[in-house]
Hints:
Blueprint: H1 2-28, H2 40-69, H3 72-95, H4 101-126
Helix pairs in contact: 1-2, 1-3, 2-3, 2-4, 3-4
Amino acid sequence: MPLIEIVVGLALVQLVAFSMLVGRARGKYNIEAPATTGHEMFDRYFRVHMNTVEMIIVFIPAIYLFGKNISEPWGAGIGAVYLIGRILFLKGYVADPKKRGLGFGLSFIPTMILLLGGLGGAICQAIK
Length: 128
């Protein structure tokens, strides 16, 4: 499933990039480890990263389920929407946490489509 693997690889690169933004913010706002709070802007970057960690735990198995049981090209396309959603989430949250909604929706909804679709496809195959 190379299309799915490309999207998963990009999601992992994105996660690493978000963690690097946290590290940069840690230095810029003088937040010494192990602290995870202390300056509002650092807190925003940290929350974006942690929310992405929380989402990717569901996203990766969901996209594989969907790709295997429904459609690899459709799964990769829906996964691409997730990637765009995460970028918008980052931009919105850092600018003003109240502006995170669109980005959150464009990553949460695709993840749920992948999860429920993939699970439904697996169930349908199991009962055949």
